[in-house]
Amino acid sequence: MTDSALRTLHDAVMARLDALQAWHRDLHRDAEAGWTEFRTSAVVARELARQGPGVLLMAGLVLDLLGNH
Q1: How far apart are CA 55 and CA 69, in angstroms?
Q2: What tens digit of pLDDT does each residue of 4-63 get?
Q3: Contacts with 21 (C-beta within 8 Å, 6 or more apart), sequence order
Q4: Could you tell me which of 64, 32, 29 has the C-alpha nearest to residue 48?
Q5: Nearest one of 60, 28, 66, 24 to 42, comparing CA atoms
Q6: Cβ contacts of residue 61 below 8 Å, gap of 6+?
Q7: Alpha carbon of 4 to those of 10, 14, 15, 17, 50: distances in Å?
Q8: Distance of CA 27 to the CA centre of its chain
Q9: What is the DSSP annotation of 40-64?
């Protein structure tokens, strides 16, 4: 990753730091056992859907970056 890309990523994370920390605390408050992360998957799907990419929620979480679904 180039220095420019790292700076862009850093700036994006810092701009959303409060929201990311709240999200992290929420997800870890009631941690789910492996392969049973149903609430976690739903929360992640909802947040990704707000950003625009296609999300298919099944037994896990599938993110369609190409928009095929």
Answers
A1: 8
A2: 989 998 998 899 899 999 989 999 998 999 888 889 988 887 887 786 666 555 556 566
A3: none
A4: 64
A5: 60
A6: 41, 44, 45, 55
A7: 10, 15, 16, 20, 26
A8: 11
A9: HHHHHHHHHHHHSSEEEESSSEEEE
Amino acid letter at 34? G
Q: Two tokens at 2? A: 């180039």
* pLDDT of residue 69 exceeding 60: no
d(CA 49, CA 41): 12
CA 5 – CA 54 distance, rounded (Å) = 24
CA angle 54, 69, 66 (to 5 degrees): 65
Structure tokens at 68: 């095929």
